[in-house]
């Protein structure tokens, strides 16, 4: 019995210290989020190529999910296209990208919004950080309760805020002069396990986009 208590003591001490340190750690991360998250939004908002490709990424994933039934896909935008991660048939992906582009051109702007976008997570993190700092300023207490309230409120506010930010800041549906030029991926995706190499289906694709100049359209 004594040996069990002796072994249990370090665990109890660790848990108590973790609980005591957690509010300070959360405060530190909150300050970091308040500083860095707006900078990330500004970076995207000031780059129209990223915003356009971000919208195309979302529209492509939305089409893949609704038309082909894919789930668990992710992606991110680059200036010359966007990346899709997940087990997707290349033909389905190319078709979805073209359909997504056509739909945006037809005015289906809701396709540029996706509920699992990282923007929503950033919005939730930023919201929880602001709420926690405000509670800290009002109460003057580093407490678990303040963390709980901040996280709880951010879960309600974050998704809605994320959609608003996607619509007005991180995406652009001005795709009238955009063309899908192709898809790049590694057809021979090799995974090594315990010294053995296995060929697997590709799970990362780069969809190339190109802005059509008015001269190209006229010719």
Automatic annotation (TrEMBL):
Q: Which UniProt keywords apply?
A: Membrane, Transmembrane, Transmembrane helix
What taxonomic lineage is listed for the species of origin? Answer: Bacteria, Bacillati, Bacillota, Clostridia, Natranaerobiales
- Tagged with keyword Transmembrane: yes
Q: Which residues cross the membrane?
A: 6-28, 129-153
Note the superkingdom of the native organism: Bacteria
What is this protein called in UniProt? Uncharacterized protein
Entry-linked Pfam families: DUF6391
């Amino acid at each position: 019995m004594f040996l069990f208590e002796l072994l249990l003591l370090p665990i109890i001490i660790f848990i108590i210290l973790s609980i005591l340190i957690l509010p300070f750690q959360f405060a530190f991360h909150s300050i970091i989020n308040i500083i860095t998250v707006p900078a990330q939004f500004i970076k995207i908002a000031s780059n129209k190529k990223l915003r356009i490709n971000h919208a195309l990424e979302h529209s492509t994933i939305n089409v893949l999910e609704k038309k082909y039934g894919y789930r668990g896909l992710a992606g991110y935008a680059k200036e010359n296209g966007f990346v899709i991660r997940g087990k997707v048939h290349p033909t389905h992906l190319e078709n979805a990208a073209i359909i997504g582009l056509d739909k945006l051109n037809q005015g289906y702007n809701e396709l540029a919004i996706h509920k699992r976008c990282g923007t929503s997570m950033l919005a939730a993190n930023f919201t929880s950080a602001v709420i926690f700092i405000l509670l800290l300023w009002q109460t003057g207490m580093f407490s678990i309760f303040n963390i709980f309230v901040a996280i709880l409120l951010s879960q309600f506010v974050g998704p809605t805020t994320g959609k608003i930010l996607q619509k007005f800041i991180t995406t652009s549906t001005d795709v009238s002069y955009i063309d899908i030029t192709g898809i790049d991926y590694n057809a021979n995706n090799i995974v090594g396990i315990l010294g053995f190499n296995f060929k697997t289906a590709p799970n990362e694709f780069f969809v190339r986009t190109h802005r059509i100049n008015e001269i190209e359209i006229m010719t």
